[in-house]
User: What shape does this take?
Amino acid sequence: MEYPSTARPATEPAAAPGEHIAALAALRQRRGAPIVVSGRFHLLAATARALAVPPHRALVVATIVGIGGSHHAGLPFASASLFPDDVTEVKGAVSGWFQVDVAALTGFPYAGVYHVTCSIGSFVAPPIRIEVA
Assistant: This one.
């Protein structure tokens, strides 16, 4: 699979009530391999419109390696092809899925502890701790 992707992941984060963004990843991953973070979002249609871009384009993935170590924040879908069916609209709310390769996004070749946070607008998923060896 190519990343970033809007495909629904095989293992998905639990849905939360109301507007939210959620993300997950395998807790241990190999250095040099893709570090895949999967997630979902659910926003009111008015919130999504206020972003001024499709929700996937507003997704920010922030990564910190080690305590006070290297850090990177990026917009993985900034130049990705998006299609109308990448976001589902039902009863005044929009939702969608995302999968991002943090290793490719950051370019970090490091082993260590990665802390990854995904956000869209003011909605922030709890950070994910990933050990890369």
